[in-house]
Write a structure and sequence with these properties.
With about 180 residues, this protein is an alpha/beta fold. The protein has seven helices and four strands; from the N terminus they run αβαβαβαβααα.
């Protein structure tokens, strides 16, 4: 039954994808895609970074926590980094991050990494299309997303307890330090 609900929810679903792009290669590749009028989905929100090696894995986790359905990190091809070895550091970080995401229960494909040079506008367009399609198939992100989804039984219990005199008095007496442990 859960699969049917997910399919219904993902029909018409447009994913929000945060893209961390290296200033020297991938961002320039995105610019070239625009100049060359290569079409790609408007689902990505670009964050330009000096180097893919400067992308902290916590930025990726924070993007997912704040509601991004997918994350793309793209940098220079290994060996072509403006900062000599930044993309090698990035590659090592991303291998570890992929293992962490798998451990946390994230679907494979929710976070993706690619290498796009400044001369590869068409490739950038293709990468964005592929990432958007794979995230669309996964559906909306549910892991770690901040929501206020409080189960109904807890809400009903709180509503009933709100009217009880002990509930209101108990919380104020605990603040004064009068209640025992």
């Amino acid at each position: 039954m859960e699969k049917k609900e997910t399919r219904k929810q993902s029909q018409g679903f447009e994913p929000k994808i945060v893209a961390f792009l290296c200033n020297w290669c991938s961002y320039a590749g995105a610019d070239l895609a625009g100049i060359g009028r290569y079409q790609y989905p408007p689902n990505i929100r670009v964050i330009r970074v000096p180097c893919s090696g400067r992308v902290d894995p916590l930025y990726i986790l924070k993007a997912l926590q704040n509601g991004a359905d997918g994350v793309l990190v793209s940098g220079c091809h290994p060996g072509d980094c403006h900062f000599i070895e930044g993309n090698y550091f990035a590659r090592r970080k991303f291998v570890i991050l992929k293992n962490l995401l798998e451990f946390l229960g994230f679907e494979e494909g929710r976070v993706q990494f690619s290498w796009v040079s400044a001369a590869e506008g068409e490739r950038f367009s293709q990468v964005v299309k592929e990432v958007t399609e794979s995230v669309r198939k996964l559906g909306p992100a549910r892991r770690m997303v901040k929501t206020l989804d409080i189960p109904e039984d807890i809400l009903k219990d709180l509503e009933q307890r709100k009217n009880e005199p002990e509930f209101a008095a108990g919380s104020s007496s605990q603040l004064k330090g009068e209640a025992g442990v």
